[in-house]
Specification:
Length: about 170
Amino acid sequence: MGLYEETLKKITPVDEAARKASRDRIDVLLKPVGSLGVLEDIAEQVSAITGEVIPDLSKKCVLTFAGDHGVCDEGVSAAPQVFTDIMTPMIAEYRTGVGVLSRVAGADVYVYDVGMLHPLPADCKAIDKNVKRGTDNMRKGPAMSREEAVKAVEVGIEAAQEAIAKGY
């Protein structure tokens, strides 16, 4: 059994008791009920995921995965594929929106090439885990094989496992 299948078997529902306990705690804080809007919903969801009413989020990171998509040939992308080559190293250097927001939040950023069309530059801080040099145009056929898709998902699973092992 591969990492993908093993991970699927480990997925469990969120902790609804922790979600309710989080909501109860939020509602008794000195503030109007619901006054923090969606932040209250986020707090509940984090509690439900972690199983803790007050989870420790002091060490955090953002995992970013880069790839180029063949369907760009159809003119449906906001930017041409060359932007992946430009953006990926900049994300790894905190020189993009996600980098700035991560730094403000005290989160480290890890960037992975999973499907970029072109290889990373030698001096790039992104991590090379390329599965396929860009996907195929899904308008003309499958973007990737099932094997490639599973391998790409496994890159994400491994990245998450490594982050967890580092205390994130």
